[in-house]
Write a structure and sequence with these properties.
391 residues; alpha/beta; Rossmann fold; 7-stranded mixed sheet; binds zinc ion
């Protein structure tokens, strides 16, 4: 089959690889009908995620049609249309029983668990197409995908919904929704959101769905700000305005009730003096991440407000203003999304027409155009906000 494979920094190729096979009775194989390139794939593309191996298959936002099921899998049958959550979860372990599916104790295999534990103190769940720290599973930017624990994770697509309407249930819609959910939104609340990429866009719409009165959306890419503004959000361009000053002005000097960091580790190094220093630290191996957005979100959050973090960080963050956070009583919420926990409610919202997540798609292509589109997406060229590939 054809698949997008990783061969080093900025080197993604579309090449022929062996077809996946059933390895466990609970597995299923799907024929991929649509998959997407995610902002967190760019961390791999940019070579900053450790423990990728040459030839690893990329991708964790995938859906398709079941073509084969393992002997112990009675939930799926050939021909079912399913969306595959990016977090792999067994559905039975200590964490899965509590709904913390992105911390499944079984899906990250022993060797990866050991490495993750060394780095983070313990191991989260395995993920599709996301390094050998997290299982080294083949990803779904391919013609076929093996889905482990397929009798638990995938959600069947009801008749009448298109691939594009449901594909983002695999990651960015639940992730953006969780970001807003973490904010415990009350009537009259103002939610500030850094990053108007695909997850940020989902977070903006989710914040309104959950009752926010005002959303302040922060980015610098014109087409992203336009898309954010179309929801009624107040848009701020950090290259043009002082974000802290503007948020204080908009909130009577109190700050936003909750602040969402939908940027993560690769904050724009030209955004401020501290992000320039972060870039130097990362380049000289004196730091692992560029947490400029997180620092600013903390300062812009009102006393006893919530900072919700869904942008991905990898390691040890420098100069986080904990003095500000503790003296002003901030709450921090963050996670890799336990996707399965959100799927039923979000599928229902799509079915009811409350949201159509396909609004974010700007580019559609075949797999062979994938390598070029990684670059287009990363460089934010051609108005690119979200790429969907149809193998
Ligand atoms: Zn993703
Ligand atoms: Zn589990």
């Amino acid at each position: 089959m054809k698949a997008l494979t990783w061969h080093g920094k900025h080197d993604i190729r579309c090449e022929s690889v062996p077809d996946p096979v059933i390895e466990d009775g609970r597995d299923a194989i799907i024929k991929v009908t649509a998959c997407a390139i995610c902002g967190s794939d760019l961390h791999i593309y940019d070579g900053i995620m450790p423990d990728m191996h040459g030839g690893d298959i990329m991708g964790h936002e995938t859906m398709g049609e079941v073509v084969e099921v393992g002997r112990d899998n009675s939930k799926l049958k050939v021909g079912d249309r399913v969306v595959i959550p990016f977090t792999i979860a067994c559905g039975q372990c200590f964490f899965c029983q509590r709904g913390f599916f992105s911390a499944c104790e079984r899906s990250n295999p022993e060797r990866s668990r050991q490495k993750a534990t060394k780095m983070w103190g313990n191991s989260p769940a395995g993920l599709f197409g996301y390094t050998h720290l997290l299982g080294g599973y083949s990803g779904g930017q391919a013609e076929y995908l093996r889905v482990p624990y397929a009798d638990f994770g995938p959600i069947k697509v009801p008749d009448g919904l298109t691939d594009e309407q449901v594909l983002f249930l695999s990651d960015i819609f639940p992730t953006g929704y969780m970001a807003a959910d973490f904010c415990n939104i009350q009537q009259g609340d103002t939610i500030a959101i850094w990053g108007c990429g695909p997850v940020g866009q989902m977070a903006i719409r989710s914040a309104f769905l959950l009752g926010a009165e005002r959303v302040i959306a922060i980015d610098s890419v014109p087409e992203r700000l336009v898309l954010a503004g179309a929801t009624g959000a107040i848009t701020l361009d950090y290259r043009e305005e002082d974000i802290y000053e503007r948020i204080m002005e908009l909130t009577k000097g109190r700050g936003a009730d909750a602040c969402i960091d939908a940027v993560g580790t690769e904050a724009d190094p030209s955004a401020s003096w501290d992000s320039r220093i972060d870039r130097i630290k990362v380049a000289t191996f004196m730091g692992t991440d560029r947490p400029h957005v997180l620092r600013q979100a903390i300062h812009c959050c009102r006393n006893f407000g919530t900072v919700s973090i869904v942008g991905v960080y990898g390691g040890f963050l420098d100069k986080i203003p904990m003095g500000s956070a503790i003296n002003r009583g901030l709450t921090f919420r963050m996670a890799q999304t336990p996707v399965q926990a959100y799927l039923p409610v979000l599928m229902e919202r799509i079915q009811k027409g409350e949201i159509d997540p396909s609004f974010v798609i700007t580019h559609r292509a075949g797999l062979e155009d994938g390598p070029e589109l990684y670059k287009t997406f990363r460089d934010k060229k051609e108005g690119c906000i979200k790429v969907v590939l149809k193998p």
